[in-house]
Write a structure and sequence with these properties.
Blueprint (H helix, E strand, L loop, with lengths): L3 E5 L11 E5 L4 E2 L12 E6 L2 E8 L1 H53 L4 H31 L2 H24 L5 H29 L1
Antiparallel strand pairs: 1-2, 2-3, 4-5
Helix pairs in contact: 1-2, 1-4, 2-3, 3-4
């Protein structure tokens, strides 16, 4: 069979973006790229460690499954990334309000109620510690989400769990808990829980 040349449009799977020209003959095709593509119904190839090697025949059904899986993975990453970005922004804005409101409530309770100094200092210390962890958590979360990097996103996930535990402390175990404390901490805890789920989904999508 006479060899023919044709152009393959770029298919972007995750961080790959390539355009290749392939020479097709009757027995198969020489794949001169390493982009992880499944391209046409009768290509002979096998991908190993970024190298394209001779292999078996790729059928139309396998092609469709591979392309569908690639599009699904990319869609999952986009949805998770956009959701995390929105939640990180919302969480940062809300935590600024939470920190100021909780600090004012502690000052108010120390003036109106009996608030021993030995209990006041730990509550204030944990509040400021929570603020530091929140700033670091938001930094790693934003960095990991923008760069699609698992390590900073995983670090943000760990800090999110720590922030959630501190939210539970201010919700249930601080020295004096008013209804305002409960409402503020419950909302923050819900945000942390939702972020943790989306970060875990994003990490799984980025690894896949």
């Amino acid at each position: 069979m006479e060899k023919a040349n044709f152009h393959i449009s770029a298919v972007r799977l995750r961080n790959y973006s390539c355009e290749e020209r392939l020479g097709l003959d009757g027995s198969g095709v020489d794949l001169g790229f390493a982009c992880g593509y499944a391209l046409t119904p009768s290509l002979r190839f096998r991908k190993a460690d970024g190298q394209i090697l001779p292999g078996g025949t790729v059928g139309a059904e396998l092609l469709e499954r591979n392309l569908a899986a690639g599009h699904k993975s990319a869609a999952t990453e986009q949805v998770a990334g956009a959701s995390i970005r929105m939640l990180l922004y919302l969480s940062g804005m809300y935590y600024a309000l939470y920190f100021l409101a909780t600090l004012l409530l502690i000052v108010y309770k120390s003036q109106v109620f009996t608030y021993p100094h030995s209990y006041l200092v730990p509550d204030l210390t944990l509040l400021f510690l929570m603020g530091i962890l929140e700033a670091i958590r938001l930094y790693f979360g934003t960095k990991g989400n923008l760069t699609e990097a698992e390590v900073p996103l995983a670090a943000s996930l760990v800090l999110t769990v720590g922030g959630a535990l501190l939210s539970v402390y201010f919700l249930l175990w601080q020295t004096l808990v008013l209804w305002a404390d409960s409402a503020l901490s419950a909302v923050l805890l819900a945000l942390h829980g939702l972020e943790a789920v989306l970060q875990a989904v994003a990490i799984a999508a980025f690894e896949g």
